[in-house]
Amino acid sequence: MKEQSYIAWRDEKIAELLSRSSYDFQDLCDIVTILRGEGGCPWDIEQDHHSIRKGMIEECYEVVEAIDRDDTALLREELGDVLLQIVFHSDMEKDAGHFNITDVANDECVKMIHRHPHVFGQVKADTSEQVLANWEVIKTEEKQRVSLSDQLQAIPPILPALMRAQKVGKKMNADADLSDAALLDTTIEDLHKLSNYDDPAEQKQIIGEALFRITTLCRRMGLEAEEALTASTEEKIKSVE
Q: How far apart are CA 107 and CA 136, in angstroms?
């Protein structure tokens, strides 16, 4: 878009937006383009992927909070904030000539069709378990993550530690040779060893191993370690109110 034509489009679009009281997805994309374009918002213009990276994480957590609170109005608002993050990052890449928001939507559609052959193809999957098993096989083929090491390294390090540990433990089938009782005994034994060590590095390792095994116990019980700790933390906070 040439400079003059952009300015004319921007001014016309701003006037149109101000004359209306309801908007759609394309309007959101146009607003982000205006904010980041010539004569737009200085803060928005200065941002890059790294500078707003934290915002994506915070907004996703706020969506989860709205879900946990069963707050429909808040969920609507927070989903909008996540959508803004997606449009913002996509607009940066559009300016760089790499891809745009339509490409993002296209790629996701392609992925969903490919990963649901039981709906869009001839594969048979009558249960959720079969669907998830097929999904993992297809995903592994797509990403060419043949070895267990490849699959483990693909689990994002940015995930909360307990969540990541539980995902790693599931992939590894960690401590498969131990019964639940033996796993619990081993965890307790490890924690008892803490009194024998003064070195913070050794203490850190022991506690880390114990926490990892606790995530394995949670997995076997059908629990999410991250959610369990979050719930307990909330209870502690409420106890001092």
A: 18
